[in-house]
Amino acid sequence: MASVTIANVWKYYGKTSAVRDLNLNCNDGEFLCVLGPSGCGKSSTLRMLAGLEHISAGDILFGERRINDIPPKDRDIAMVFENYALYPHKTVYGNIANSLRLRGMSKADIQQRVQKAARMLEIDHLLDRRPGELSGGQKQRTAIGRAIVREPRLFLFDEPIAHLDAKLRAHMRVELKLMQRDLRTTMIYVTHDQLEALSMADRVAVMHEGVLQQFGPPQEVYHRPANRWVAGFVGEPPMNFLDCDLAEEGGDLCVRHPNFTTPLLPEQAQIMQAKGGGRGVTLGIRPDEIALAAEPGLHAFSGQVMITEPLGGDLLVDVILEGSKVLVKAKPNYRGGRGEVCHLTFDRERWHLFDREDGQAYF
Amino acid sequence: MIETPPRPARSLGEAVGETIGFTQEGARYLKYEAGSLNPEGSRRYYFYLMLPAIFVLACITIYPFFWLIYMSLHSVDIGGAGDMWNDFRNWTRLTRDRKFQDGWLRLAHYSVLCILFEVGIGVLLAVILNNSRFEKVLVTIFLMPMMVAPIVAGLVWYYLYNSTFGWYHWLLQSAGILGETSILGDRGTAMWGIVIVDIWQWTPLIALITLAGLKRVPRDQLEANMVDGAGAFKNFFQVTLPNLYPFLLIAILLRFMDNFRFIDAILVLTGGGPANSTKILPLYLFDISFQFFKLGRGAAIALTLLIMTIVLGLILVRVFESPAGKVNQNEEGR
């Protein structure tokens, strides 16, 4: 068990930088997700932690110990790879036992630990098979078995469930989280799937183009995104963004858009006045934080329904505004059809304003 | 016959027609002939297409094969009277033929030495070459011996080994390794002499095939093994080598079949001597058939060689048909 500190780490491939000045810390026993689209530097980060990539600059510490120059075999870590990386010429048992054999453990001990890990992952009936005879889910369990059997001080997961089908993925999310809670081993988990990150992690680090965008608990990343990029990346369906102005109207500071002029809540107005309002802002609001009604109400404004997408439990409605469009998650009993006028109300507690220039969030 | 069901979208006839530039009518005719809706008809069509190839193959391999069996059962006399049935005497004589049995032993000795050294050095070379900065240049240079005709290679080495002006001979003698004897003239060293020529000429082939295999060793398996706790050495034997098996199989299969056939270099170097110490079986077969013109006995020896080649080939395939090879192929489609 160990805490992990990543201090001012850079990774260069030739002249291109994949990771830029990354600072992260992961507490002992914590489940940390590194979230980002492909090419954001998350895998490079993980591979530097594993010792598979050279660290161009900066330090990585396990506990108090600097591990930059320690080869992977001496780092006491276990890693699960995206494509499982099982040894095809070995049986499931041989795959799981590999790391123990390499450490010269006695046969009886190996047997006992492999059996225990296999039982936990419910693959004990497959121990004699070879990877070629396993399904995707079974391969993935074998790969995890190979990692947990060692009882390492740090787990590294590189998109381990990205290749499973949706149903199995949902199942494995729960299992992995349970497993981590049981073992209480520090775990760093890389994924591009925001759902995985939000549902499993204690804390989420969002990366984009090699730069850490936000680092915090899932709720914070979801409800208080640090900037426009994080707001757009996290959440499904994605957040709506509308370019607006700030204007004084009737003594209140209001968000003004061709379709609506809505006053900010008092504490929001305070923030905007303190941080130099008057500049161009982008309003961000999630589809489920917009109320849709057939009749007008307080602070409501009108738009035109472009199309509706029934999703069973929910109904997604595309609404056309002046020069833009918002996606609204409505109740399934909403009956508006194409071209009809509808009335929208924003949940002002939940909306966000971003600087239009640098994308940083005001609130 | 081939069991491919005809594709409804575009029949083979149409495809062929388009490829070789038939007119529309011609293409339509072919389509009709191919019987795109009639499996029976299309199968017959494929058979017609294959007929010329089958005919050529029959002439150059199948007919001679049966003729070989026929010859092995008869006394075959060149230019003289007809072939005479001789009550399996060609075969029964082999059981008493010391030179035949020694030929097998020497062939085994020769092949094992060649293949062991070629695979060992070849794999080592490939590992060194792989990802080296000068890989492309070095591969080209290493391939040169392979480009030389075996008989030329034999001649070159014959002069290098020569006891009066041969460079290697002089070198070894100066170093005190070789006494008064010459390399090819001594029963103890002649076998090594011909083995070294084979190694020199064919190790590059093994290196080339292995190099191709090395490029396809899955990187994530190597990395997983490193994280599991393996150093570079263990990583090579635990991950790289098993992944190389299918490639080594091809290399070894090629080499051992060549060793059973190619005698050009040996013929030039020693001609089987001294005192028959390098008379491997194919060389003995050559003597019997084309020096003494005992074609019947030669045919019997040739058949034993053929059978042994097939049996050894099958054993090799069985040994090397590792799950690794199969699995990696399966996973291609993923």
Give short descriptive properties of this protein.
heterodimer; A: 363 residues; alpha+beta; Rossmann fold; 6-stranded mixed beta sheet; B: 334 residues; mainly alpha; MetI-like fold; two-stranded antiparallel sheet; 2 strands; 1% strand
What's the CATH class of the largest domain in chain A, please? Alpha Beta
Radius of gyration of chain B, in Å, reads 26 Å
* Level-2 CATH architecture of the largest domain in chain B: Orthogonal Bundle
The separation of the N and C termini of chain B measures 30 Å
Q: Cα-atom Rg of chain A, whole angstroms?
A: 25 Å
Main sheet characteristics of chain A = 6 strands, mixed
What's the CATH C level of the largest domain in chain B? Answer: Mainly Alpha
CATH topology of the largest domain in chain A: Rossmann fold
Mean pLDDT of chain A: 89
Shape of chain B: globular
What is the averaged pLDDT score of chain B? 82
Terminal CA distance of chain A: 37 Å
Helix/strand-derived class of chain A? alpha+beta
Beta strand % of chain A = 25-35%
- Write the CATH homologous superfamily of the largest domain in chain A: P-loop containing nucleotide triphosphate hydrolases
Do you know the CATH architecture of the largest domain in chain A? 3-Layer(aba) Sandwich
Q: Largest chain-chain contact?
A: A-B, 27 and 26 residues
CATH topology of the largest domain in chain B: MetI-like fold
Could you tell me the strand content of chain B as a percent range? under 5%
Low-confidence stretches of chain A: none
* Spatial strand arrangement across the major sheet of chain A: 6-7-8-3-9-10
